[in-house]
Specification:
Structural class: mainly alpha
Number of strands: 0
Radius of gyration: 14 Å
Shape: globular
Strand content: under 5%
Number of domains: 1
Length: 108
């Protein structure tokens, strides 16, 4: 629970970042607004989504480009597939509609 709460506070800070929110276009959710709304199982599910079904074929390189230069149109096919899986988990677990979670949000 403590690790989930630490992550929830970090995510909330990124949502509330001023003047430009860094996540979810500055919108929060009921789950993010609830004290102890996340537990560490959410982090495990996100990691599993990133790793995908064929974990043995993965390298240890991080294929996500720098967030400062992140452009969803230029990420590799493998990276896009990973981010799409993460995006689905994030929307489900954090209480967002899928359309509210961008690939950049998933990368963050």
């Amino acid at each position: 629970m403590y690790l989930g709460e630490i992550v929830r506070n970090i995510i909330t800070a990124l949502v509330d970042a001023a003047p430009n929110p860094l996540l979810f276009n500055g919108k929060s959710s009921r789950i993010l607004d609830a004290h102890y709304g996340l537990d560490s199982s959410v982090l495990s599910e996100i990691e599993d989504a990133w790793e995908g079904p064929n974990i043995k074929a993965l390298t240890f390189d991080n294929p996500v480009p720098s967030l400062a230069q992140f452009d969803a149109g230029t990420v590799s096919r493998d990276c896009r597939a990973r981010l799409e899986r993460v995006r689905v988990v994030v929307s489900k677990q954090l209480g967002f509609e899928l359309a509210q979670v961008t690939l950049r949000d998933a990368a963050v």
